[in-house]
Specification:
about 15% strand; alpha/beta; Rossmann fold; seven-stranded parallel sheet; about 45% helix; 7 strands
């Protein structure tokens, strides 16, 4: 591939798998995360495989830190071909227990920086006729109890894809979303561990996933992102690609 790709929230979970998969395809991967120790450890791991990686520590809710990170990337490489907006956290900010500040903070953590990064990268993406991929949660479509902030943010992540795809087709910039439902990440593993009977809870959720009754892997998300960044998807834009074993759109009442 030999193209410069920016991945946010790349020090763990889905972002880490995306970055690792991109390096296997010879991309130059700029990994951005606020967790400096985890970022450094992952960068070292990739460098030991002779991967081209550029780690940048940044708090994505801080516009100046985002701008500085992109400035450093452009100074080092002169171009950006792809942006993968991935960072976020289901923070449980709800209508009942939230407030104006916590709701706004949830939007800052989960969607505002998606738009910030796209704005900062746009001139380079336009020049390269590149691609944006937003990692989104199914909560943006289906909602979820007790997490109105995160659900609202994900609805916005998905609609931004429609906006960007509709606004810039003549510029050659493609924009798509990968929609995640039940994916086995460190965060999800932690949440399962908080349940009164973790094994039983995991089995209950897995049994509702039509294709194989199993959780999606982070590698499966990464494979789809690679496709959407590659020339193989050059005529795909404005789409929400669900990588979820049919969880959102298949009728789980009849699938055995």
């Amino acid at each position: 591939m030999d193209k410069v790709i920016v991945v946010t929230g790349a020090a763990s979970g889905i972002g880490k798998s995306i970055a690792r998969s991109l390096t296997s395809e010879k991309a130059i991967v700029c990994i951005i995360d606020r967790n400096a120790p985890a970022l450094a450890d992952f960068a070292k791991e990739l460098e030991e495989t002779e991967a081209a990686v550029f780690p940048l520590q940044a708090e994505l809710t801080n516009h100046n830190e985002c701008a500085l990170a992109i400035e450093k990337i452009l100074k080092k490489y002169g171009q950006i071909y792809g942006l993968v907006n991935n960072a976020g956290l289901n923070d449980g900010v709800s209508l009942e227990y939230g407030n104006l500040k916590s709701f706004n903070d949830s939007l800052d953590k989960n969607v505002v920086h998606y738009n910030t990064m796209a704005e900062l990268c746009f001139a380079s993406l336009k020049k390269a006729k590149g691609a944006i991929v937003n990692i989104c949660s199914k909560t943006g479509e289906t909602g979820q109890g007790g997490t109105s902030g995160y659900a609202a943010a994900n609805g916005a992540r998905m609609q931004l894809i429609k906006k960007w795809a509709q606004s810039y087709p003549s510029e050659g910039v493609r924009a798509n979303a990968v929609v995640v439902a039940e994916c086995w990440t460190p965060q999800y593993e932690w949440w399962i561990g908080q349940q009164s009977n973790p094994k039983e809870k995991l089995a209950e959720i897995s049994n509702k996933i039509p294709l194989g009754n199993r959780m999606t892997t982070t590698e499966e998300i990464a494979n789809t992102v690679l496709f959407l960044l590659s020339p193989n998807s050059k005529n795909i834009s404005g789409q929400w690609i669900h990588v979820d074993g049919g969880y959102v759109h298949l009728d789980r009442a009849v699938v055995k």
